[in-house]
């Protein structure tokens, strides 16, 4: 079964549902929801969103399987190419992470939890987070997942990602946002917190900073790591454009006293 076949505009919705139903027979339980949503997305003409859902299926069959494997492999390799981000890991972000976790609790986030980009693992430990994803763990920390492709879909009711998105170059950044969205279960909430624009502007004044052409408030450091600052409005728009309308994205108000810029993502 090929993705091209499923996106054929001449197919009726009934045909698409039939084919998607066949696909769910080959998918694990955690990804069935994503695959089951494909007919509806295709019927609405949202082929990009349907493609993201298609990649949730492991294993698929035929050409779809090849696309999924290649995409997942490419995402894992893109993360590996950003190894310099390990130099940005800090032990002094526990306070921010704790506020983020508590804020999500106050919003009613329940169920299994994930720290996406767990750094040294200290934040997850302090906030009592169930699972962790960290591709470049320090000695002594064993995260639950080392590769994005290992993170199960439609599983988490609570995800926090603090000071992660800002250290990722554009391609890897978009993949991270998609991975977070995919990992959320229906009704689940994720809080994504980043450097704000002013912090990036301050960092760019360093003689060791090299401005990135084509991206505002972004620079690379002497270690090769990437840094990008966001305004709240910019972060909200970026996450909305990346995830699409299956998600609600809200700016975290200043009264929450969470440093930097931050948004909450809710999966519809």
Short synopsis of the structure:
This protein has 268 residues and is an alpha/beta fold. The chain contains eleven helices and nine strands.
Describe this structure in words.
The chain has 268 residues and is of the alpha/beta class. It has 2 domains: 3-79, no CATH class; 83-267, Rossmann fold, CATH 3.40.50.150. It has helices at residues 3-6, 13-24, 29-36, 38-43, 47-54, 62-80, 94-106, 122-127, 170-183, 197-203, 232-243, and strands at residues 113-116, 131-133, 156-162, 184-194, 210-211, 218-220, 226-228, 247-251, 261-267. It has a 6-stranded mixed β-sheet with strand order 2-1-3-4-9-8, with helices on both faces. The protein has a 3-stranded antiparallel β-sheet with strand order 5-6-7, with helices on one face. Strand 6 (218-220) and strand 7 form a beta hairpin. Helix 2 runs antiparallel to helix 3. The longest helix has 19 residues, at 62-80. It is globular.
Outline = globular
In the CATH scheme, what's the topology name of the largest domain? Rossmann fold
Give, in spatial order, the strands making up the sheet with the most strands.
2-1-3-4-9-8
Please tally the helical runs, counting DSSP H or I stretches of 4 or more residues. 11
CATH architecture of the largest domain: 3-Layer(aba) Sandwich
Whole-number average pLDDT? Answer: 79
The low-confidence parts are 20-33, 57-70
**Portion in helices:** 40-55%
Query: Quick one: how many beta strands?
Result: 9
CATH level 1 name of the largest domain: Alpha Beta
- Series of H and E elements: HHHHHHHEHEEHEHEEEHEE
User: In total, how many domains does the architecture comprise?
Assistant: 2
Cα(first) to Cα(last) distance is 28 Å
